[in-house]
Specification:
Chain lengths: 406, 406
């Protein structure tokens, strides 16, 4: 099914907001048999939205709109669509009661400006919003089906997953199969060299490399499901060391599963990552089964007093050193009585670097029943990138230990 | 000057890549007097690009295109534009010599596939590329000026900054002024009600509400700088409690500045946020001046043994309670000898909720020289949203304490 996209909002044109919805929608319609073939971004002005609807190419069967369903003066999408599709607004008392109750449950009075979210059209359908108050709209004319969703990504995604993707799947004949293989700990070019020959042997299987600072995702697509499966069977053993999961799997999910399977607990001692590894562990529901907690030892006094890093070590080798990373990992494992202790210390930057210890110099320490080890990295000049890459390296070190014992 | 944007590439429509160029261009043309009023995303197919060029509205004076200037088979933008603007290709021997030398300087032989980058049109202009080999193009017809740039963000930005933005500035009469006011702790609808009247009184000042889970940004724009300043003077006192900074300022930046100005240090005791608040504090360069570190007390044993939360408190009231939040904040302040102790405990979800303690129930504790206080929230069913909203609420509680002493 050929799909058109109209993303609505002056903030998209003037760049106050990056349109991440378009890419999410573009990706997610494919497994349901959809394909975004046309995309306009328009301002939240009556004539611009109508103009876009008028310009939808003949070949497009469904138009997805995002944005402009909220309660403020620039949220005009429903008004425009009611007029365009000839719908009359009706006040939905039941929904207004529900909204009022929802606000009351959170100890708030619902503002009157939210009343427009309880309007529904006399034709077409409203689309439930599992995570917000603005409902979506579904209208049909003799050219296309039109779906309107909020611009808030979580609300848009919930409506797509619950209502619109199943609708697209029910109308589509050809299914495209897509598999994501997520890797970490290997650069794009090195990964490409490992599987280059297999890619060339299977022209029916389309392979895209999507590199990030934290690793490279492989996006494998084809209309031939068997070809994809054969391809994956061939590639999997070659990239096993780097391949930690499929679509939607974060490295912390994979590490969590290995910890549960191994019956192990872990604790973190974070300096340069400042809590990011703990944050990532606890992003996983059920992580309390293996993540005991941690010490964010940002100041040296915390490293000394709570983790038991020796004063001598800090003075002789410095806070950013193999020795300190080691004592932090050992210290947190002991202090929190966990099976594994994981530590980070480094120069996150952008300032604070020296010739001997440049910005981006990072140590990750691992302590466990069989011993301890420190890993050294030199990352980037960017503070946030260094924190992210360090957390990823630390999680991957834990993964490799749990898989291979070292 | 009204500007149209055509972003070219199948990877943008199928979502393999998020279009970050559009937002960058949208933002950066404004100070030069430009305004993106129309934007189409099209596939790298001949007919789709021509169709977009044909559809450029009458009001648009300049069209900026990105993508499809590289050396591979799907880089067809120049071919299409030559045909559309009636230009003949000529081989640019000088540029080819330059490219050959550049490759040689890096110890490489230039591939023949790069020859198309030395083609130039017999009319129009080429745009220099300070950071890559593909040059841009500039054509004119009786409707608009058309600029083509590579899709690689660094190359696009270099061409914009060096050539295209100065051109836009030279053609524009009116300059647009923009200010961002970032708020937190108030919902979009409530914020709107507070300043609704002022918005209506100043039709020359354009106000957009940009809501996130963590707060609402106001984007105020006008061609009349005095009107913006008057507007801000009127609105500022009304939203002072919620307004924490301008463009690019995160709440942790604002809190960090208040801590530095007040000469105070802070430590965190995180349960449900798992390290996210520490992560946010340490995203700020120089945060070691005030952020001492923290305890991620995910398991109760860590709350007891390291933070000194009483066994009795945990058994009587539970880990998610006002009492536990209080003892955590007091405990971490004492343990890390900081001026302020900040704690979080809650049911992040999605599972683990009960009737008395539903998912989204969160307590934030604050302990300081004048006493301590616990704040209760009921957020959402989503784990990551709850963590994010809790971290934001905790930072905002700290901000309000530092500003108003309570």
């Amino acid at each position: 099914m050929k799909i058109g996209l109209i993303t609505i909002g002056a903030e998209l044109l003037n760049g106050a907001r990056t349109d991440t919805n378009a890419a999410w929608i573009g990706q997610h319609v494919i497994p349901s048999g959809g394909s975004v073939e046309w995309h306009m971004t328009v301002s939240d002005k009556n004539e611009d939205i109508i103009n876009a609807l008028d310009k939808v190419p003949k070949s497009i069967e469904a138009v997805l709109c995002t944005g402009g369903l909220g309660p403020t003066h620039d949220d005009i999408t429903p008004t425009v669509l009611y007029e365009y599709f000839g719908a009359q607004p009706e006040f939905d008392e039941d929904y207004w009661t529900l909204l009022t109750e929802r606000f009351a449950a959170r100890g708030r009075t619902i503002p009157d400006s939210n009343r427009n979210q309880a309007i529904k059209p006399h034709i077409g359908e409203v689309i439930p919003n599992p995570v917000g108050s603005a409902r979506g709209l579904h209208f049909t004319n003799d050219h296309f089906d039109c779906f309107a969703m909020p611009g808030v990504p979580s609300e848009m995604k919930a409506m797509m997953l619950d209502t619109i993707l199943p609708w697209i799947a029910s109308k589509s004949k050809v299914k495209h199969h897509i598999t994501i293989m997520r890797t970490t700990g290997i650069m794009e070019s090195a990964l490409y060299e490992k599987i280059d020959a297999i890619i060339k042997d299977y022209p029916k299987v389309n392979v895209a490399f999507l590199p990030r600072f934290t690793g490279v995702d492989l996006r494998i697509s084809s209309t031939d499901e068997d070809a994809i499966n054969t391809w994956i069977d061939l590639v999997s053993p070659i990239i096993k060391k780097y391949h930690f999961g499929g679509e939607g799997v974060a490295l912390e999910d994979a590490v969590g599963e290995l910890l549960i399977n191994g019956g192990k607990t872990i604790a973190t001692a974070e300096s340069c990552t400042g809590g990011l590894i703990g944050d990532r562990f606890t992003n996983v529901s059920g992580s309390s089964a293996y993540y005991k907690g941690g010490i964010v030892a940002y100041r040296n006094e915390v490293k000394r007093e709570i983790l038991g890093v020796k004063k001598d070590t800090l003075e002789t080798y410095g806070a950013v050193s193999e020795e300190t990373a080691l004592e932090m990992a050992i210290g947190v494992r002991k202090r929190l009585s966990s099976d594994i202790g994981l530590s980070t210390t480094g120069i996150a930057g952008p300032s604070g670097g020296t010739v001997e210890k440049p910005v981006g110099l990072i140590y990750v320490g691992l302590s466990h029943e069989n011993g301890e080890k420190v890993y050294k990295f030199t990352f980037t000049p960017s503070r946030l990138t260094n924190k992210l890459m360090t957390s990823q390296a630390a999680l991957n070190i834990t993964r490799l230990y749990l898989l291979y014992g070292s």
